[in-house]
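Backbone-to-sequence.
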């Protein structure tokens, strides 16, 4: 009877850096422009984009995305295509 060894395979798990994307209110983008860009960046539905846009308008800013830094950078880049004021927090 031989001695059995169990070899544990190392699992390569990417540990993402958590990040938040904040959009700030401004006086030059229309609601429709912001809604359309949020839908494009977040791949969200109209109701979600409208709710976020209203929060940006009434509170001056809103966290529009929480997740991995790599995805947050993508969201930021899409939102900045129309010069929205965007910031990432780690």
């Amino acid at each position: 009877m031989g001695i059995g060894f169990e070899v544990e395979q190392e699992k390569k798990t990417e540990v993402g850096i958590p990040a938040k994307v904040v959009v700030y209110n401004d006086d030059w983008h229309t609601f429709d422009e912001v809604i359309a860009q949020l839908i494009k960046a977040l791949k969200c539905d109209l109701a979600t984009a409208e709710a976020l846009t209203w929060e940006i308008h009434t509170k001056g800013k809103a966290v529009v995305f929480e997740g991995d830094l790599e995805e947050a950078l993508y969201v930021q880049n899409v939102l900045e295509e129309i010069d929205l004021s965007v910031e990432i927090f780690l």
